[in-house]
Specification:
The chain contains 6 helices and 12 strands. By secondary structure, the protein is an alpha+beta fold. The longest helix is centred in the C-terminal third of the chain and has 18 residues. It comes from Wenyingzhuangia gilva.
Amino acid sequence: MARHKMTKGVCRLCSKDTDLSFEHVPPKVTNNKNTKYITLPLEEYYKTDNILDATLKGKKKQGGIGYNSFCRKCNSFLGTNYVPSYEKWVQAGYQLQTNSETAYIKYQITKIEPLKILKHIISMFLAINDNWYLESYPELAEFVSDVNSTTLPKNFRVFTYLNKDGNIRYIQHQTVGDFSSGHIINCSEITFPPYGYVLILDYSNQNIEKLTDITEFKNIGNNENLSINIEIHQLPTHINIPLDYRTKEEIKIAIEKGSKKRNEEL
């Protein structure tokens, strides 16, 4: 069993400079107890001609994926107030997974607390991003640290999708260009089956295809007997690039086209 040491740093929730305990992202009770994961700088993906077949090396994490991002008090606060609700949300997600790479599903989840689920999802983004994230967007920590708060500015949007095929993603803040619309998207992404999440900052009504916006969970409140209707896509994550949900076949076609174009230019 892996043992995680305390480290010194700034808590991403209360902003105190103190000892930081290890926070599993997602919670250990959601099948993140013995997960092994290789962290890799995004630029490494652009150094190979065939992303799907490349053997990429990075720093391996064991004993569950997590970060020393919160003090012991805040870690306990998250575990007590939000993790039980988040665990129910995850259990429902596993029941919805299909055998295909892509699918569109409509369903109802019963007896959940949407506000708590949203707060825990945002806490995971605080955990994986660096200190500047807390300093630049204090509204996120303020929203999470108050169990009853429904105050989250409109420029923050949280999207989700189901995930079964592909790779785990832990992508810190990135600026992504949407070539079809010309929009620039500032986002961070976490994918750990059965869900993937995208937190978009400075949101300005961009069209985010195939992602389900769950930001309105903030207005549903905390009532464990609630039932909500969800429409969601199941999407693959074969390469570690934010907002890329191409199937293996689509990626292979793109690689072949790129290779052909380079050969023609030689």
